[in-house]
Amino acid sequence: MKPLPLSFHSGDAVKVAKSLLGMDLVHVVRGRARAGRIVETEAYVGPHDLACHSSKGRTQRTEVMFGPAGHAYLFLVYGLHLCVNVVVGDGAAVLIRAIEPREGIPEGVRTDGPGRLTRALGLSLSLNALPLNQPPLFIARGESVTPPHITASPRIGVDYAGEWAQKPFRFHDRRSSFVSHAGR
Q: What secondary structure, in 3-state letters, does the chain show?
């Protein structure tokens, strides 16, 4: 698995969210890869997007979102569930919502949701702000998902964001059975 260059993740969050579908998210743990094919993403387009963490400004938590594209932004939801995002630049990021297990993930371990996929891959907050083009955490070229197989819908769990909650910024591979339940 060859890591994608950081430039792959740069630019418009919606375009990057779609282009990440079919790529592999890989975490190397004690020399062994745990990997999954990305099948669901959500775009957070920057500080003007009221569902985006950067809309609250630069904080210790969000500082990585204002840095260079291609870095990991990890955070806890409700202090319990770890989520992994790809920074695309200028305060924008793409949340990876679900993966199809490929390698190193035991059969039956669920990966259909942001917290489940991070547990399956063994991710931790210590990976926050790392570049995603080298171990221990990287995104590798997979099989791109073409537009006829991409479904767009509103993001999940951001009702507080007013009109931004209804933006069709959630994308998934309609052929995958690993898409999060809330998004089916």
A: CCECCHHHHCCCHHHHHHHHCCCEEEEEECCEEEEEEEEEEEEECCCCCCCCHHHHCCCCCCHHHHCCCCEEEEEEECCCEEEEEEEEECCEEEEEEEEEEEECCCCCCCCCCHHHHHHHHCCCHHHCCCECEECCEEEECCCCCCHHHEEEECCCCCHHHHHHHHCCCEEEECCCCCCCHHHC
Q: What is the CATH number of domain 6-183?
A: 3.10.300.10
pLDDT in tens, 125-152: 999 999 999 999 999 999 999 999 999 9
Rounded to whole angstroms, how far apart are CA atoms 110 and 3?
A: 24
Q: Confirm whether pTM is higher than 0.85.
A: yes
